[in-house]
């Protein structure tokens, strides 16, 4: 079955350390997205990519970085510059760039600080 | 500015009773509208979507939503709630630029 795979499910970061969250999709979707979810805050967009080798900042990009070298993969790096990284991170993908197609979500990665 | 408001943070409904979750949006034209559901520790699952046409849309798991342009609303309804419907529900809007704006969610609790 096609879908979005996020790994790991749980991740722990030490102070001053960069960590990378994996997101892989086999849906042949052009667009991919990273969201951060905090209790009571809904989902906030970190970065998105509509095509390979191109990506745009979302609403809360500071302290994060991404790459899109392959259509199937959109890894997110949480850098040491992100001072409050503890959150639930969701990756999503969509067939189109206009917005009239729904986004499909992975099962998330929960990041905590040691 | 574009925004989505879900006025109710928590709602408790008795099993078998009807449900309505509210969603209001702020946008100058008619956006694309979605309802998603999230179980604890999981990703989001699409319940239904509205793009144009019939203002009453049917979704999965017996849910429906009605788009009302005059009220800038897209409320989610279910005639009879089951205990398995307990989850968090998110309304989302896309104004045509590929990114979604989410409401802050409504947590549904189902009492026996």
- Most extensive interface, chain pair and sizes: A-B, 29 and 24 residues
Query: Count of helices of chain B?
Result: 0
Q: What helical percentage do the residues of chain A reach?
A: under 10%
Poorly predicted tracts of residues of chain B: none
Largest sheet of chain A, in brief, is: 7 strands, mixed
**What integer value in Å does the Rg of chain B equal?**
13 Å
Number of strands of chain A: 11
Describe, in plain words, how this protein is organized in 3D.
The complex is a heterodimer of chains A (114) and B (112). Chain A has 114 residues and is an all-beta fold. Chain A is built from no helices and eleven strands. Chain B is mostly beta strands and 112 residues long. Helices cover 0% and strands 52% of the residues of chain B. In chain B, a hairpin with a 6-residue loop joins strand 10 and strand 11 (101-102). Chain B starts with a strand and ends with a strand. The model of chain B has no long low-confidence stretch (mean pLDDT 93). Classes of the chains: A mainly beta (114), B mainly beta (112).
Keywords:
heterodimer, A: about 110 residues, mainly beta, 7-stranded mixed sheet, 4-stranded antiparallel sheet, 11 strands, about 50% strand, globular, B: about 110 residues, about 0% helix
Summarize the structure.
The complex is a heterodimer of chains A (114) and B (112). Chain A has 114 residues and is mostly beta strands.
Topology:
The complex is a heterodimer of chains A (114) and B (112).
Chain A: E1 4-7, E2 10-13, E3 19-25, E4 31-37, E5 43-51, E6 54-57, E7 64-66, E8 76-78, E9 87-94, E10 104-105, E11 109-113
Parallel strand pairs in A: 2-11
Antiparallel strand pairs in A: 1-3, 3-8, 4-5, 4-9, 5-6, 7-8, 9-10, 9-11
Chain B: E1 3-5, E2 10-14, E3 19-21, E4 24-26, E5 32-38, E6 44-50, E7 56-58, E8 64-68, E9 73-78, E10 87-94, E11 101-102, E12 106-111
């Amino acid at each position: 079955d096609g879908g979005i795979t996020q790994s790991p499910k749980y991740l722990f970061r030490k102070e001053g350390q960069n960590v990378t969250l994996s997101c892989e999709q086999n849906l042949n979707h052009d667009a991919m997205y990273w969201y951060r979810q905090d209790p009571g805050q809904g989902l906030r967009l970190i970065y998105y990519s509509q095509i390979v080798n191109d990506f745009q900042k979302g609403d809360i990009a500071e302290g994060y970085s991404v790459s899109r070298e392959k259509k199937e993969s959109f890894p997110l790096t949480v850098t040491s510059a992100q001072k409050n990284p503890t959150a639930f991170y969701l990756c999503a993908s969509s067939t189109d760039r206009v917005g009239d197609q729904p986004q499909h979500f992975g099962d998330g990665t929960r990041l905590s600080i040691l | 500015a574009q925004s989505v408001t879900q006025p109710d943070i928590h709602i408790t409904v008795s099993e078998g009773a009807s449900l309505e979750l509210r969603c209001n949006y702020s946008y100058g034209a008619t956006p694309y509208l979605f309802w998603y559901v999230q179980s604890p520790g999981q990703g989001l699952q699409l319940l239904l979507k509205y793009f144009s046409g019939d203002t009453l849309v049917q979704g999965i798991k017996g849910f429906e939503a009605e788009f009302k342009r005059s009220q800038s609303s897209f409320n989610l309804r279910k005639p009879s709630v089951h205990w398995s419907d307990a989850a968090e529900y998110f309304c989302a809007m896309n104004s045509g630029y590929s990114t979604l704006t989410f409401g802050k969610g409504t947590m549904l609790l189902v009492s026996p």
